[in-house]
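Re-running the complex after MR caught last week's input typo. The corrected sequence lines follow. Everything else is unchanged.
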Amino acid sequence: MKKYGMILICLLMTHTISSAATNDSTVKIASKLHTEGVILAELMTHLVNHAGAKAIHLRELGGTHVIWKALKRGEVDLYVEYTGTIMKELFPNSRLKTLNDIRQRLLQDNVLISKPLGFNSTYAISMKPEVADKYGITKISDLRHYPDLRFGFTERFLARQDGWQSLRQTYQLPQTNVRGLHHYLAYKGLNSGAIDLMDAYSTDGELAYYNLQVLEDDLHHFPDYYPLIIYRADLAERMPQVIAALQKIVGNITETEMRQMNGTATLDKVPESQVAADFLAKKLNLQIDIPEETLFSRLYQFTIEHLILVSISLFAAIVVSIPLGILAFKSSRLGQIILGIVGMIQTIPSLAILVFMIPLLGIGNVPAIAALFLYSLLPIVRNTYVGLHEISPQLRESAQALGLPPMARLRLIELPLAYRSILAGIKTSAIINIGTATLGALIGAGGYGQPILTGIRLDDIGLILQGAIPAAVLALLAQGLFELAERWIVPKGLQVKSR
Amino acid sequence: MALKTIDLFIPEGKTTIMLGQSGSGKSTLIRIINGLIQPDKGGSVFFEGIPVTPQNALELRHKMGYVIQEGGLFPHLTAYQNVALMAGYLGWPAERIDKRVTELAQLTQLPLDMLSRFPTQLSGGQRQRVSLMRALILDPDLLLLDEPLGALDPMIRSELQNDLKQIFQTLGKTVVIVTHDIGEAGFLGDMIVLLRDGQIVQQGSLPELVHTPAVPFVTQFINAQRSPLEALTGNPS
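Corrected-run output:
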């Protein structure tokens, strides 16, 4: 049984690894957890597919460095990055100033860049036009004369290097009524008049929706955030037609157009894929067919992805943890070391473990499975150890006195007596695992985390529930299943009531 | 409990009692016999002429049945499975095991329908009968019993003492019983070894201990056991 299980795992592993590895006929396009990035990735996906190649969109990966590493490893072929982000976040110490500096620097990593797509997605200090008109404010330096204005900024903007502190210095701003707000709430606050001014991105859909006025950055405080397509040099050699097809959107998206697309996705809840297709139809006269996706088919796919993550990692954890627990029981010194190490692993935040895995195993479900595996160890190792430890000395002596050798004692007496405890450990692991696996979506592993991430990004409770409810149901199901299994696995003699 | 230097010969085919207060070292001694505890350097145990070592102890235990207080039955196995465990491990054919278990059930007077029960479903006396069956399954030469009746109430205890005596007579095996009960020792034992603080105080039959005590402690120990009728026959003054 165990042997077949291992073979199954090996098969699944090779399958998952091979599907993540570079395949010559596909183009892997990535996006960050950011609506604009998802729309741009969908635009590129449509263009690549239209050019006759096969595009795969790895949606909503955890962050800039996650994608950048995946790009260098070849698990991602291309994505859209902003000049400001490349300069400030990817290479903060390289003092890159111009587009040419960026091109030279990325070439060192065998990465090429396109020309800018058109718009600038920088910070936009915004006000309601009625308020701005009342004071006659059109540019940021005008704010100097109105110290009583109330500002609401995102926490990120308050903390950033080019955020509020340096903005205040650059423009010598006198305002003191500044509070931290969630981006989404800031729009509502501005609209209702609770605040007078907020930070936004110049391409936010809400700017158009609430009809806000963006103040001119007349001292050029904010760096430019021009989006570029950055792609692996080998893709250009392998599939020049793909690079050619992508040229159609280069320099072709205006700030207004991007703002409209963002608004359609975030405010009107139109799927990004549809938003991208509509843009291509209108702007380039390209007809893109989007396959109809039912809720059921989406759910089915998430379930399969989630089950792969949970079952492989849990099975591997069982196979490894039970022997470790036995070892810990048999040798008390080794036991302290084993329990110490698995306990320490558990204290690492799950998100951190996922990110640690990327340099080793890249992105996709393999690193997610590895991280979940590590997370599943402690409850099983610990419960195996405790279950064996709690067997009464009398019973242990009885087994010894019969003349059973140690392995036979373990198999016939000790393990069966510990089954209930071991099973409880596996159950705990499974339930933690099902919950933690939702984070896998951050490194491209899919599963129920995907709709949750999209839902958080779009502030869409319905989407969040599409992931959260099935995950909760799965956890309950696992619980029930283990309780059934307990009746079957735990020896009957340990379940009967005494007379 | 640490034992001091002890030199002891256990006669074949007889029932020897290790008698003493708790902490006298009697349980340690019985565990040294079957190798559960190693004697200190220089000490050794010979079983049928062979020295018991950690290497051969497992093997030799097949010839030494062992019963402990409350039986030490494995709760996940039925009475039958408990009894048959070692025979099954040694690869006996099922019919042979079946025959042997039935034989032992008759010997220990355990009703056959109890065999399919789990230990928690048996009474204390039944558990000890099963435990004795388990100790006898491989037909050992030596039977070691550590306070086998310690946890039973007096009526059951007395009944089982009768049955044990009969069984030992039927089998004619070498038996070693650990107990602190002088009455039980006198009833079951051919020879009594009285221990105190890890040393043998006296060994002999009950009459020898009563009539020619080696030290005053022997008489003290014997008299410490209260007779149930003591209150009635007490000193009238």
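None of the earlier attempt is carried over here. Residues 380 and 425 of chain A are 4 Å apart (CA to CA). The first helix of chain A runs from residue 2 to 20.
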